[in-house]
Every structure is written in C-alpha cells, then in structure tokens.
Amino acid sequence: MKIGFDAKRALHNHRGLGNYSRTLIKSLDKFFPEHQYQLYSPKVKDEEFIKWSESLSPSCKTISPQDYLSKKFPSVWRSLLLNNELKKNELDVYHGLSHELPPGIASENFLKVVTIHDLLFLQFPENFSWIDRQTYFKKFSYSVKSADIVVAICEQTKRDIIEYLKVPEEKIHVVYQSCSENFYELIDEQNLDLVKEKYSLENPFVFHVASMEPNKNTLGIVKAFKKISKEIDVNLVLVGRGKDYKDKVINYIKENGLEERVKILDNILTSELPALYQLAELFVFPSFYEGFGIPIIEALFSRTPVITSKGSCFPESGGPGSRYIDPHNLDELADAMKEILLSESLKKQMAQEGHEFVQKFHWKNTSKDLMDLYFTHL
C-alpha cells in the first residue's frame, strides 16, 4: 500500500502537531515496513528534523516542491498544487495529519483521511483573531466534508466535531495518539544527573510543560504553587514557549518573590524532556481545554504522577490513577499538589497505576489501530 502524509508539521514544527505527526509516521514505518510512505512537505532546513527524517527506513520518501514557483512559494504548492502531485504518485491513501486537505482532493479515487485534533478556535474564540477564526473554519469544514474518514484523537474531540462541524458520527473514528518512544524506558542515573546538573535542579520539583498560552493555565499553576511554597521544600519547573502570556507569568513570579522557587527553562532539547519528566516528583497539567493532552501520557510513561483537569478529554488520557481538579479552583490545585507531594506511598501508587493504564497508548497499539482503519475503508 502507498500512503501519503501531509508532513509539513512533522518536518517544521516542534510543538504538539509536529510531535503527533512524527510519532504517527515513525510508528507506521517501524511496525508496518512493508508499505510505502510519502511525506509531502516544503524543503526541510532544521537540522533536528533532517536527522529525524534520516532515521526513517527507505520505505519513507520525502517529496518537496521542485519547480521554481513551488520552491519560491511553498505554501502555494502545499495548498493549490499538491493535489496534482498526489494524483501523479498513484496513492492508495492520503492522510492530512493536521486538520487540512488540499483543494480539489474530494474527487480523487484514493482514500482521503484527515485528523482533527481540537476545535480551540470555536471553543475559545476570544483567543483568536476574526480573520483566523474565519480561515480555520473554512479549512476545517472543507477537510471534514472532503474526507472519507475523519480521525478524532479522542472521544471529546469526536463530540466537538459532531457539534460544531455537523459531521455525521459514522464518518468519525477515534484513533488515539501516542508519544515518542523516548518516553517509554527509564533513563539511567548518570544521564539523569547530567540533565539535573545542566539545569541546576538541586531540589525536588513539580513539573509542567506546555506552550505558555491562556488556555494552558500556567499562571494558575504558579499562583497555586505560591499558596503551598512555604509548607513544602519543593520547587516548580516550567518549560514552554510564549509571548504576552509568558510575560505575565514571569512578572507574577518576580512580583511575588518566587525567583528562587520557580524556574522557567528555555531552549530545552527534545531529547532532554524524558529526563525532566522522570526527575520530577509530580506533573501538573490543569489546562482549561485540550484536544488530547500528550504531556499527560508522556508523564505517565515516565512513571510520574499526574494532576490534571476534570472533564473534557482529560480522563481519557489520564486514566483512573491521575488526580483531577477544577482548573479554575486554585485552592483545589494547591491542596492536591500538597497532598501528593507529602505522601511517598501516594506518589508511588499513582505512578504505578498511571504506567499500567498508559500502555493502551503505546505506539505499537495506536499504529495498528490506524492501519486497521485504513484497510477497513479501502
């Protein structure tokens, strides 16, 4: 079978959509090497992504624009010209991994699949400009209408697609995403110590990683931590890029004299994240909304107990061993952190239950679910 992927984010994006794409592609390549995979993307320049693409088997081929116009305007190639490229390559399946399918694809004979991760622009319109909301709605609507299969990354996203985009339920299939295999195994003490020393992590710490945007509730984490900071000898470590909202977080830390207790790490290497998760006493992720919440399963694979939000997709990704709180209630978050941090037996129990639960998201299982879905609809 010949399967094509929209690989722009796999080869250009360091965040969630890029991680999803890379993990999906690499897992299929690993567990189903008998198929051919074509990765459609503008030319790759980032060394990290070049190395990643070189780690794939010969079954994976990257296809980038070749003529002058397409190289000069890769966004035009990816949107207006890509369908001709797909038709020429005689695909069996084309999968848009990040909400999009190219114009004109609806009439093609190969199986058309699109993954919808979340509908944040409809759930939190105040965080998006008017023009962005209109653009996203047009793109998403076209994609779900043109696709033969709409993949939702969790049951909550499936419900949102039905409600907001009016897609028939029978067209939507939930295929859970996984995380990088780098989180699956324990790291030896020597390498843990190297990361600890590099970032001066002398004290035990609570950990959080996410882009610093309002819906991630990073400021809420810092405020809740302040409530218990005098009662526990544990620090808070934050990892995430951001702009205005990140500035608010930094200003709050300074204004409340938390500089010695709250550390924001910038320019973390992807390869160092598993060590940071495993070094942490506790992972907190009180987001207001997520499509799925990959950091939650990264923490669970890392055998780190998790506090996350009630409702939405969070119980799907966190399982029965995680602690759930109202993300608007900072006292509840503070109390949960304090209780878990002060109990070694509770931390151990949560870590063990979480690690057992998260195996359902192992990439061997998620890749099989996706391949089965392809074959069922061919």
UniProtKB/TrEMBL annotation:
Keywords in alphabetical order, please.
Transferase
Question: Which InterPro entries does this chain map to?
Answer: Glyco_trans_1, Glyco_trans_4-like_N
Q: Where is the Glycosyltransferase subfamily 4-like N-terminal domain?
A: 16-176
Superkingdom, according to UniProt? Bacteria
Q: Which residues form the Glycosyl transferase family domain?
A: 201-355
Gene Ontology molecular-function annotations: glycosyltransferase activity
Stated name of the protein: Glycosyl transferase family 1
Question: What are the leading ranks of the lineage?
Answer: Bacteria, Pseudomonadati, Bdellovibrionota, Bacteriovoracia, Bacteriovoracales
